[in-house]
């Protein structure tokens, strides 16, 4: 019996190789252009990794989504907690700290108040589960915080949907359910300014009512037709190369701050007016000041900060920015003069004073010239003097090897509260932030 021709014998091999090559080509193109099944496979893989890493968090056993390695040291000190390095240089006053509760018996989130000696003197429990029945508290992150002279506080959450004001015992005074997130800032006119999705909103402090809003995509990022009037086109493509249709990717801007220019600071910024709002758009490294009525950008600058947070107006007419600087292991506090665009560095992490948070983070320039810094992704707070030396630091300790993410530290004067330090009958002192778990 004669053998079949060579071409017939090679046909199955050629067919298999062709299918393999086509599969590789299609897989490459599908991955590049997000064709089926690349997005589905990517989502499945991310979901698997997330569940594997955080299943203990999601069933309430351990807050793995909120735990980070401690900052300031390569080897965690089991006895770390509060350390006063130069107490004589400290600003004084009270320090508020917001984030995960290190006490397993309390509410998942808390805001704590520390006195000048670093002792906790009050705690606001944040009962997220009572405010929103749709999302588990352990899957949210307390982020925005404002404090009031009567001892109440207001808070917002990442991946949550609550904006609420709570009295000194954590009882809700009012609550709004929507996609509020990131910072909260009082405007000095009876409102708080924050983000709801991609919309800046002004919320009445006393009632929670939204009194004004300004949409990022619909108003601020309008397009080329108004660029000559001071509007900035924030898109990365033009109408000419999209056949008239603009499509945004997921979270192309990531707005993370909206700070109003208050009356007492306005004279230092002749380019702006009281009520103008400074915004931070992380994904495009943009800090800008916009007119609250029209959305017109009066000033903007892309970098040199990278994935920044928390730009603040300063009394000398400059703006300070928390430069996360991801990928470098060194975060910075930068200062820009909006008139000259000159940029300088107020503080940067170093071997002597490590400082790095690849995301999140807040800063505050204190009255004595010191900086209060929130090293969010390392669970550490620090005050440094104008020369960059540590004044004090605090680790928010979960156990011997982990800290909890901390989203903000803020200094307030000792006479801030109208009736003295807030108190609550059910308040129980807790030292778990300085005593690691076993």
UniProtKB/TrEMBL annotation:
What are the entry keywords? Membrane, Transmembrane, Transmembrane helix
- Transmembrane stretches, by residue range? 12-35
Cross-referenced InterPro entries: Arylsulfate_ST (IPR053143), ASST-like (IPR039535)
Question: Where in this protein does the record put region Disordered?
Answer: 62-82
Lineage: superkingdom: Bacteria
What protein does this entry describe? Arylsulfotransferase (ASST)
């Amino acid at each position: 019996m004669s053998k079949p021709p060579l071409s017939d014998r090679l046909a199955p091999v050629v067919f298999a190789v062709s299918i393999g090559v086509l599969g590789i080509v299609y897989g490459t193109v599908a991955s590049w252009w997000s064709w089926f099944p690349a997005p589905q496979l990517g989502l499945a893989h991310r979901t698997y990794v997330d569940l594997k890493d955080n299943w203990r968090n999601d069933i309430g056993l351990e807050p793995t989504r909120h735990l980070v390695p401690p900052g300031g040291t390569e080897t965690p000190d089991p006895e770390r907690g509060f350390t006063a390095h130069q107490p004589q240089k400290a600003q004084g006053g009270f320090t508020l700290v917001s984030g995960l509760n290190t006490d397993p018996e309390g509410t998942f989130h808390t805001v704590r108040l520390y006195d000048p000696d670093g002792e906790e003197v009050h705690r606001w429990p944040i009962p997220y589960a009572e405010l929103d029945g749709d999302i588990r508290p352990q899957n949210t992150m307390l982020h925005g915080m404002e404090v009031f002279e009567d001892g109440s506080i207001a808070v917002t959450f990442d991946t949550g949907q609550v904006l609420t004001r709570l009295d000194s015992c954590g009882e809700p005074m009012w609550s709004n359910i929507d996609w509020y997130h990131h910072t909260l800032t009082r405007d000095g006119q009876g409102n708080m300014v924050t983000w709801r999705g991609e919309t800046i909103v002004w919320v009445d402090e006393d009632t929670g009512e939204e009194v004004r809003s300004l949409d990022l995509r619909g108003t601020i990022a309008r397009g080329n037709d108004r660029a000559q009037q001071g509007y900035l086109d924030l898109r990365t493509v033009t109408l000419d190369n999209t056949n008239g249709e603009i499509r945004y990717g997921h979270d192309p801007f990531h707005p993370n701050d909206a700070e109003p220019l208050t009356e007492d600071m306005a004279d230092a910024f002749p380019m702006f007016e009281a009520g103008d709002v400074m915004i931070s758009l992380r994904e495009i490294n943009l800090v800008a000041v916009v007119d609250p009525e029209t959305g017109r950008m009066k000033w903007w600058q892309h970098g040199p900060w990278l994935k920044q947070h928390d730009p603040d107006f300063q009394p000398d007419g400059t703006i300070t920015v928390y430069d996360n600087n991801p990928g470098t292991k060194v975060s910075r506090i930068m200062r820009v003069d909006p008139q000259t665009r000159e940029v300088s560095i107020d503080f940067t992490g170093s071997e002597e004073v490590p400082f790095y948070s690849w995301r999140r983070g807040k800063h505050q320039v204190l009255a004595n010239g010191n900086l209060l810094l929130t090293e969010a992704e390392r669970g550490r707070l620090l005050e440094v003097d104008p020369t960059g030396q540590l004044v004090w630091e605090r680790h928010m300790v979960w156990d011997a090897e982990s800290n909890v993410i901390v989203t903000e530290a803020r200094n307030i004067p000792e006479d801030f509260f109208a009736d003295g330090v807030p108190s609550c009958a059910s308040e129980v002192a807790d030292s778990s932030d300085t005593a690691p778990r076993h």
